[in-house]
Amino acid sequence: MNVEALQIIELDAARAPAPMVDHYIQLVRNSLAECTADTAEYANALLLKLEHLASHQRAHAIDSSQTQVYLAPWLTIPSPSLRDAA
């Protein structure tokens, strides 16, 4: 892989969906062995950028054991009674 191909990947990854960014990460990783020294340096920097982009595109799982924090905890919403619903 050459620098031009890496630049194309970098430009396309900015607006690509997460599965495509994952594909680009694998593509760059697999091509590192056959790169020249300066191309490998650019590829390593691009990998950092792609991994950062991929991590920001994903929603992290929430821990349901933690209590929910509300912006106004003093406000309460009364649950409607069955008589009011009928």
Summarize the structure.
It is built from four helices and no strands. The chain is mainly alpha-helical. The protein has a domain of 55 residues.
Characterize the structure shown.
The protein has 86 residues and is an all-alpha fold. It has a domain at 3-57. Helix content is 58%, strand content 0%. It has four helices and no strands. Helix 1 packs parallel to helix 3 and helix 2 (18-31) runs antiparallel to helix 3. It is rod-shaped. The chain starts with a helix and ends with a helix. The relative contact order is 0.14.
What's the Cα radius of gyration? 23 Å
* Strand proportion: under 5%
Which ranges are low-confidence, i.e. pLDDT below 50, for 5 or more consecutive residues? none
Question: Helical proportion?
Answer: 55-70%
Structural category is mainly alpha
Mean pLDDT: 86
Shape: rod-shaped
Number of helices: 4
The strand count comes to: 0
Give the N-terminus to C-terminus distance in angstroms. 69 Å
Helices and strands, in order, run as HHHH
Which features would summarize this protein structure in a list?
86 residues; 4 helices
List the helices and strands and how they pair.
Elements lengths: L2 H11 L4 H14 L5 H21 L24 H4 L1
Helix pairs in contact: 1-3, 2-3
